[in-house]
Design goal:
about 300 residues; mainly alpha; elongated
Length: about 300
């Protein structure tokens, strides 16, 4: 037993010595050496295959990241084209006070204007006063902060906290005809049919109602309102609009505006604010709904209908 343990210990020491010197294959048989070499070949090929797959995964991940970066960059700088419907409305609205800045930006686009067979004078002639919208209040260009995203830079001036836009409701008193002022067209309440029923009830009760006096009173009110509008009529047409002959020219100008807003000194110059017709129409509709709701609430708060006050 002791001899067997001693031989086993010697064998272990021999293996450790050969392993230390790198000659452990001296104890292997021919079959074991073949199996070891085959295992090395299999391991080498499997390692190469694993390295190849790892490289492909890294390349695919890098490709996806590059694609995501450039797609994001493209969407970042071009998403506003569809959002603002520039293909349908190739127009740029801006404030009258910022016309010198817009002219300066136009001069930087002479090459694009030449491609459109236009001169700088032709481009300036396309700047006209807008009469579709009224600017009750807009964002201050001095206080407007630069936005890194182009779509925010173009949208926020229209939907700012201080901006109030409405449709132009000017009467054009020099062109509008003096329509006949009838009793049925004068709304005493929210429902004209209800007004007619109220008048008919008053007549049936033999109420002392003279239509001539009522019409005279209404005519006096109409004349006073007409004169007030003539005296205090004010225009809020603070917009100028540039309508380009093509979307390409409008896009070129918009990118030039983005570069201008990004490179100016905020302490010395103003941000150039752009407005667009679809956004202005939406803001004007919002203002109109708010005004109608406030008017409805005011009429409901009245203790006495205007018809009784007039009679």
């Amino acid at each position: 037993m002791r001899g067997w343990l001693q031989r086993k210990k010697f064998l272990k020491d021999l293996k450790d010595l050969l392993a230390y010197t790198g000659e452990e294959d001296l104890l292997l048989s021919t079959e074991e050496i073949k199996r070891r070499e085959s295992a090395r070949i299999i391991f080498r090929n499997m390692y190469r295959y694993w390295q190849k797959k790892k490289t492909e995964r890294k390349r695919l991940a890098a490709t996806l990241k590059i694609q995501a970066y450039y797609r994001g960059r493209f969407v970042k700088h071009s998403s506003f084209v569809n959002a603002l419907q520039l293909s349908q409305y190739p127009k740029i609205y801006f404030l009258k006070e910022q016309k010198p800045q817009f002219v300066k930006i136009l001069h930087s686009q002479i090459a694009i204007l030449q491609q459109e067979n236009m001169t700088i004078d032709d481009a300036l002639n396309r700047i006209v006063e807008d009469r579709k919208f009224e600017t009750i209040r807009v964002e201050e260009p001095d206080l407007f902060e630069w936005k890194p995203l182009p779509i925010l830079q173009f949208v926020m001036p229209t939907f700012g906290k201080k901006t109030i836009i409405r449709f132009n409701k000017s009467l054009e008193l020099d062109k509008r005809k003096n329509e006949d002022f009838t009793l049925r067209k004068f709304l005493y309440s929210d429902n004209p049919q209800q007004t007619d029923r109220m008048l008919s009830k008053l007549r049936k009760r033999n109420y002392n109602l003279k239509m001539s006096n009522l019409k005279a009173q209404l005519a006096t009110r109409k004349k006073k309102t007409f004169l007030d509008q003539m005296v205090f009529f004010d225009k809020y047409n603070d917009f100028l609009v540039f309508e380009g002959p093509s979307v390409k020219l409008v896009l070129s100008i918009l990118f030039a505006i983005l570069d201008y807003n990004r490179t100016i000194d905020v302490k010395e110059e103003q941000q150039f604010l752009c407005f667009f017709e679809p956004l202005l129409e939406r803001a004007a509709r919002i203002t109109m709904i708010q005004q109608n709701i406030r008017a409805c609430l005011f009429r409901r708060s009245l203790k006495q209908l205007p018809i009784y006050m007039i009679i």
